[in-house]
Specification:
2 helices
Length: 70
Amino acid sequence: MNTGLSLTSELISRRDRLKEQHLSALANLQRAYEDNDIQAQAHYKGLEYGIDYGLIHLDFLVDLAKQEGL
């Protein structure tokens, strides 16, 4: 079994799931702004910020794996 390929596939899968969560967080943040709910705004803004950084790291790892031919 090629563990490098398995790892790359898992990274891509996790990245895709995180992108879905990011879109959900953005929708909830927009709703919080529309409802003028400051507590929810802070929560979803922090969540969106954290997911952004996670996506940056996963994109970097996927690109690195592709460069290495995994």
